[in-house]
Amino acid sequence: MRAKRALLYILLLFFFYCNHTNALERFKYPKEELPHNFCDNLLDDLNFYSFPYGENPFITNIDLLIEDIHHIDGKNLDFEASFSLWIDWKDPRLTEMFKEKNIYSGKGKPAWLCDYEADALWGSQQKILDPGIEFFNRKDKPDFQSGLVDWVDIFSDGTIETRLRDTAKFKSNEFNFGKFPFDTQIISFELWSEFPSTIISLVPGSSMQKYKDTLYDFEGEDGIVVAAWELKNVKFDTYEYVEEDGFPYKGFRLFLEVKRLSSYYIYKVIIPILLILSISWSVFWIDRSQIESKVNITMVALLSLIAYNLSVDEVLPKLDYLTFMDAFIFLSYLYTGAATILCVYSYYRYRKYRRKINLVDYYAKFVGPISYIVGVFICSIIYL
After folding, report:
1. Highest mean pLDDT among 9-18, 62-71, 267-276
2. What is the span of the domain harbouring residue 359?
3. What is the pLDDT of residues 190-224, one digit of tens each?
4. Which of 203, 235, 261 is the last residue of a domain?
5. Which residues, 6+ apart, have CB-to-CB distance to 83 below 8 Å?
């Protein structure tokens, strides 16, 4: 019994030793065993800037983390965002060089070797492959070397990873304001390479699905902050297109679905307009002989509606279609104008016939508000 127990202990110790040795080998940090000037010498040896034509395309992984959406400008059809972007690809020629130098055996987890500033690799003399990736819809478009890279890491298996953290403005042609201010918009980030997909093939990185599943609320942190909007969904995909040169190209797109927080417009615009309409329609409870007071009230209400309309136009571009807010304000114009006309007509009948009971005022008190409510309901069905 003791012999079996001792044998079991020996086997457990041997198993632990093997696992511990494999773990050390797997997570080995080779830079500690390399010369201190290794990265400088490596920079002199790098000459992998050209494409190995005829072989498989370089699979380029895109990991795009949107940190904050600072402002969505509907009038100028753009938005400002802070983001972090990781781009990595593997160059097999670099892998072979590391194998020849006995830096990487081809087994286990690759280790980080060196990091460089972008200008060191893509400055006056290119050292490694430049996949030519940029944001398609970025307003201020920097080139890949100076504007889309903060730092470059090189790993022992030939993987090259670039990092960038930046804030920029992006164009959006997908805004639809038909339901404004209860609208939901899609804002997108588009990346593409200047080289055909037979050379550079863009694919979503391993972190993209994690970001999508958690709506960017990860590692216990808050998700994306979108001022005056609420993030509803995240989607990403790749797409191919053919340029005029006849070559196929591949792009990467990230879509954020955001819903406008409409409470501001409800409290600041819609409710005040309803109060203005109530005041303008209250003229039918005033004695019909007070025509000047009644017309003054409706005209002030009409001018107030014009002011609100102008303030709403400040946040939207010039559109060739009506929004829900446009229809709502237009309906308010219509009923305020109708109240003014009915006041004048009621006074005309009063002066001409001198009747004690004026049917115009009597029916307008009830028919007007009810028909307005029905009109708003119909607009809601059409637009919302």
Report:
1. 267-276
2. 264-383
3. 999 988 988 889 999 988 877 777 666 655 456 67
4. 261
5. 64, 65, 66, 67, 165, 166, 167, 168, 189
